[in-house]
Amino acid sequence: MDSEGAVSEPTPFEGLGGEAPVRALVDHFYDLMDLEPDYAELRATHGSTLDDARDKLFWFLCGWLGGPDHYQERFGHPRLRARHLPFAIGVKERDQWVACMDQAMGECATPEALRQRLRESFFKTADWMRNKGL
Hints:
Blueprint: H1 12-16, H2 19-35, H3 40-44, H4 51-64, H5 70-75, H6 80-84, H7 91-107, H8 112-128
């Protein structure tokens, strides 16, 4: 309940089940990126190891989904677009990121309504991150 007595909708963080399921989702996302040929261009934008990216996405998503602000506690404001400018992000990379995350959500049994809501939000954010034409 909120301060006015109304029942509040759970945050996406709560809908996913908290930190452990968010961590599992992030790990599965990066496992897919590393293994699936359909995500080769996306994988190529990352370094030789995905360990740092795994931690940063986990910390970021916890706060972005309505949970603890681990990322901001460590690094300050996310400044997503500025932090991603060194990486060439076009339509292909955007689409691969969203598809990889959608596949991870499906395989991690994210409830369908939440999966759809997050897919739309992820697409909008990924599209905003584009910094090259194609």
